[in-house]
DNA sequence: ACGAAGGCTATACACATGTATAGCCTGCTG
DNA sequence: CAGCAGGCTATACATGTGTATAGCCTTCGT
């Protein structure tokens, strides 16, 4: 635990307070609805200071993205550097450190920005998938990077659509109980393939047929639901 | 093919044109950034007429939600009513009918609204899951509804994060080629369980231990990415 | 043919917000 | 002590937007 997730140097400064307030406002209200005045109010500074430090609202957002990215990379490096990968307390600490930024991350991803963050996550996921491909009988017919991107999108769909999941579960997804329920649901889903090998073969055949049949035109197999 | 997906009665009217334009603007730019003036321009009417027909921007949005919901239900009913469920042309037609609304749906879901649409999809998915539960040796330890909600969120993560997936793939996700690639990636992911039964059992044990150990407090097992 | 009803437009208003500018105050440096 | 650099504030400005109002024009019933 070299750098316990928490106050960096450079924290406590007004600039950092503004950035944190922006992270929260952007996360709670979205970039458009959030106002510089509101952010300044939360940070305990004047609206003018926000401009003084960041130049514009868009630049403030980019500073937030950069900060988040730095934090994600640091957490990933920490977990990766640790030889005892299964140490739950570390994962817990990492998740706790991420908690305040999840809302921002979700919104940021949803509106198409935060591209570098998504790409970084895809990269991490790709390494993981590439490892799994090694011990696998059938050769995948889709590049690992693409499968990684699709799975990353699906995984991120959970925090992005958190309000809906929480509503369905009856408890806040981010509460301890909700988190437990969600984890159990995921374990169940992850450990049961949704398609049998026969289904998959049939689907692949159908896709091949479509690919050869009609280069231009709308296709027809299941995927988006 | 009783009602070929396309022009309802009541279409071609200015009201319908405004609604369609709003669907597109909300989808392309988001609810906040979209403007009544821009919507009116696209619909070929004056901004005042929008208010005349819908009263307010928020009411216009609700009308869009209602329309989308009606369309989803109709499509679901059609597919369900058709005895030849595997008829690809039908699924294709359904997807083609949904295409113009996917962007709107994605944004609408992402900002927490469109709750009834998510719930409806969860309900549909739940029926599907309940059917799969029947022929399954191990009893699930999480209610079907919750698993359905989680899976729905993951599935919807794909259209919601479409720009990122398209970027990773190198082709537009909604183009024929991109669609094919995405379908293949999904078939591969769906037909390979991400956890072995042993992994699952170990994870469940860990979750049980956590559940009993610390009722309050942050938990620690894998789930969010 | 006449008149009213309603789809439809043009204009104006109120307001919130991002942005720019001028200046204050504190702390450091020579 | 003088002065000055930079964090910080207060105020003003320009603009885009949702909303409200008054009136035109087409259509349809009588």
UniProtKB/TrEMBL annotation, chains A, B:
Residues 205-225 are annotated as: Disordered. SUPFAM superfamilies: Homeodomain-like. The keyword Transcription regulation applies. Residues 35-54 bind DNA. Gene3D superfamilies: Tetracycline Repressor, domain 2 (1.10.357.10). Keywords: DNA-binding, Transcription, Transcription regulation. Residues 12-72 form the HTH tetR-type domain. This is HTH tetR-type domain-containing protein. It comes from Microbispora siamensis.
């Amino acid at each position: 635990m070299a750098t316990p997730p928490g106050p960096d140097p450079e924290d406590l400064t007004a600039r950092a307070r503004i950035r944190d307030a922006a992270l929260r406002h952007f996360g709670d209200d979205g970039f458009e609805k959030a106002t510089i005045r509101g952010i300044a109010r939360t940070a305990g500074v004047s609206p003018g200071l926000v401009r003084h430090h960041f130049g514009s609202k868009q630049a403030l957002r980019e500073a937030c993205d950069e900060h988040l990215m730095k934090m994600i990379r640091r957490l990933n490096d920490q977990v990766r550097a640790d030889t005892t990968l299964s140490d739950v307390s570390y994962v817990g600490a990492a998740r706790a450190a991420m908690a305040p930024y999840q809302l921002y991350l979700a919104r940021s991803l949803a509106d198409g920005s935060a591209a570098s963050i998504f790409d970084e996550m895809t990269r991490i996921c790709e390494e993981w998938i590439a490892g799994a491909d090694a011990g696998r009988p059938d050769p995948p017919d889709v590049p690992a990077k693409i499968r990684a991107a699709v799975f990353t999108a699906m995984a991120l769909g959970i925090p992005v659509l958190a309000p809906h999941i929480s509503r369905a579960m009856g408890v806040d997804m981010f509460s301890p109980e909700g988190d437990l329920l969600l984890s159990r649901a995921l374990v169940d889903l992850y450990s049961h393939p949704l398609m049998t090998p026969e289904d998959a073969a049939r689907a692949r055949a159908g896709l091949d047929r479509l690919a050869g049949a009609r280069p231009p035109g709308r296709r027809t197999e299941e995927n988006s639901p």
